[in-house]
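Lab notebook, design round three. We kept the backbone fixed and only want residue identities now. Task for the bench partner: fill in a sequence for the structure below.
Input structure tokens:
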């Protein structure tokens, strides 16, 4: 039997984006991540809103959704978390655990077997590197670590111009007193380097079995400099582009070096999970400002994450399908030979094993305790953002009836805030009440500035365009002509919005405008090649017109990027069958049936494929009978 791993390493880069990383891997610029990919399993996963770092990081490390784990916004205290995270579970099992910089990890007392450097240890550096910088109380536990951890932090002021010259062209001749962006770049880099120093110090000096490190530097750099990354955007001046075009790429390269050091300390026999729990809009999808818009930052987040998993006994240089954020915690516990708490919503990724039967099956231990009931509401006077995120969590969990009262209350208290109104509209859409949502939309649009309040650091372009929402509501009602008109109006100001092109294609498909729909889908993919929905719709459209060879590649891409959707596997199975690739088609059809065992088209095609093969009459009969049962053709 495969022995449990002796060490487990979890590394997260906040806001690292796969479309940014992939060309750098191909160019050999991220050798340590490339080596991990080549010896591990690469997967993509959908990210549930809210796209808040504390919410997502704690969903990853606890295995529970936010309405269970209780962390609803950044910043939060560890005392708000209602369930243990991975570091605490490993420590409770008697294994020495290290946690560095993990969001919402500050605010608890010391625990046996746990060395914790919280997410506030590197915050609030003084103006000068020569000034005192006291470590916040409880930022390093046990307290015996505090002096050393305080000492190894890097102050942003310790960078000299030559240190930043590889990132910023011409920094030696810049007046840094009037260029505050440079100090913010230094602060983001210092945060990641401080976390690296803390992690390596603890890993080198203690006999650890679990380590988790959360890096924020890429997110901070993207906020400052993503708009200057090549290709040059129309609103970016030549001077700014020349100065800052290398900052994002060099930051990724720095983080790759730190990744290699941590993996080296863990050793070749360790289980390593590397992931980014959210992405940013990059490349052609970055927004250009409208006339009069305030440009503070060009980065905004997108609901797409990726991961690389490597451990002894797992497949190598392959893809990991059907991954969800909730799957990481149970999988790491399983690889380490630890028991799982009952009612974890995620699954152990048994598919990752070369030979699954060589691994002990996951064991659930009821003594670890049941999770608490979901949070249905928050106390009176609770933070508005937390209330909004709780409502979003219920909406994501398929409980729009629970989310709607929370959103209605927020809209009543803050009628001039667009965010709660937009989520209330989406909630009504989920409840099949688009007419009510349209009333709210028009009321909000009639407000001064469309319900947007000018605030420092806030860009209007981060909010969905009203025409976009109108189009979605018209689509819900089957009014494709009106939807088409709304989407085209939105495209005038947001031509780089990939999702807008996808919805435009849906409207055109409803109107049977096949050529225009294909053009819209290809436009979406030119902006975001990894858009799984666009790949799926394009593959389905090409299949419809019997362009099977053309349909194959987008169908493969859709299955790789959105493996949690059974219909993408169904489409790929049908396409492969048309191309006489029977064995691969059967695998894809079974992938669809694993998610929806009652998917009749999959059973019908499997029956057809098996009946044509000698010795498979029994399989053909089974699937033929399953296809005639009265159940849903498609998943709800």
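Proposed sequence:
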């Amino acid at each position: 039997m495969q022995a449990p791993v002796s060490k487990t390493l979890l590394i997260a880069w906040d806001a690292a984006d796969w479309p940014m990383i992939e060309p750098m891997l191909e160019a050999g610029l991220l050798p340590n991540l490339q080596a991990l990919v080549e010896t591990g399993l690469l997967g993509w996963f959908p990210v549930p809103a809210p796209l808040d770092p504390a919410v997502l990081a704690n969903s990853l490390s606890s295995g529970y959704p936010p309405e269970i784990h209780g962390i609803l916004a950044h910043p939060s205290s560890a005392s708000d978390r209602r369930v243990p995270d991975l570091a605490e579970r490993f420590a409770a099992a008697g294994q020495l655990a290290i946690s560095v910089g993990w969001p919402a990890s500050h605010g608890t007392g010391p625990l046996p077997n746990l060395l914790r450097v919280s997410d506030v240890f590197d915050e609030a550096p003084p103006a000068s590197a020569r000034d005192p910088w006291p470590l916040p109380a409880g930022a390093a536990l046990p307290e015996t670590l505090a002096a050393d951890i305080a000492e190894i932090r890097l102050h942003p002021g310790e960078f000299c111009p030559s240190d930043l010259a590889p990132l910023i062209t011409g920094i030696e001749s810049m007046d840094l007193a009037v260029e505050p962006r440079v100090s913010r770049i230094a602060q983001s880099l210092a945060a990641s380097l401080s976390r690296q120093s803390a992690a390596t110090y603890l890993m080198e000096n203690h006999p650890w079995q679990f380590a988790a490190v959360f890096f924020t530097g890429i997110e901070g750099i993207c906020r400052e400099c993503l708009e200057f990354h090549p290709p040059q955007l129309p609103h970016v001046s030549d001077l700014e582009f020349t100065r800052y075009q290398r900052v994002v790429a060099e930051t990724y390269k720095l983080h790759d070096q730190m990744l290699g050091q941590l993996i080296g300390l863990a050793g070749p026999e360790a289980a390593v999970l590397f992931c980014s729990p959210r992405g940013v809009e990059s490349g052609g999808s970055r927004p250009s400002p409208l006339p009069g818009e305030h440009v503070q930052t060009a980065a905004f987040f997108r609901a797409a994450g990726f991961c690389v998993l490597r451990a002894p006994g797992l497949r190598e240089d392959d893809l990991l399908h059907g991954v969800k954020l909730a799957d990481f915690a149970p999988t790491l516990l399983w690889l380490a030979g630890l028991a799982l708490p009952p009612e974890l919503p995620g699954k152990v990724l048994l598919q990752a094993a070369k030979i699954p039967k060589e691994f002990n099956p996951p064991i659930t231990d009821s003594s670890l305790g049941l999770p608490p009931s979901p949070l249905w509401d928050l106390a009176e006077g609770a933070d508005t953002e937390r209330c909004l995120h709780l409502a979003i969590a219920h909406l994501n969990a398929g409980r729009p009836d629970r989310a709607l009262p929370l959103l209605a209350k927020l809209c009543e208290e803050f009628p001039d805030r667009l965010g709660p109104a937009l989520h209330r509209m989406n909630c009504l859409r989920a409840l099949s009440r688009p007419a009510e949502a349209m009333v709210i939309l028009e009321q909000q649009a009639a407000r001064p500035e469309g319900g947007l309040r000018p605030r420092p650091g806030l860009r209007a372009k981060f909010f969905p365009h009203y025409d976009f929402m109108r189009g979605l509501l018209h689509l819900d009602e089957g009014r494709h002509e009106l939807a088409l008109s709304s989407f085209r109006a939105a495209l005038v100001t947001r031509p780089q919005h990939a999702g807008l092109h996808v919805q435009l294609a849906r409207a055109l498909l409803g109107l049977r405008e096949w050529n225009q729909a294909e053009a819209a889908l290809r436009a979406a993919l030119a902006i975001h090649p990894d858009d799984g929905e666009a790949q799926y719709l394009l593959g389905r459209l090409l299949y419809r017109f019997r362009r099977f060879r053309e349909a194959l590649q987008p169908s493969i891409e859709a299955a790789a990027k959105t493996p949690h959707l059974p219909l993408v596997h169904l489409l790929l199975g049908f396409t492969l069958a048309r191309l006489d690739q029977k064995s691969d088609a059967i695998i894809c059809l079974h992938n669809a049936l694993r998610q929806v065992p009652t998917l009749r088209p999959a059973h019908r095609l499997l029956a057809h494929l098996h009946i044509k093969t000698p010795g498979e009459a029994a399989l053909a009969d089974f699937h033929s009978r399953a296809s005639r049962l009265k159940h849903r053709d498609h998943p709800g």
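Keep this in mind before ordering anything: Confidence is low (pLDDT under 50) at residues 291-299, 450-464, 632-636.
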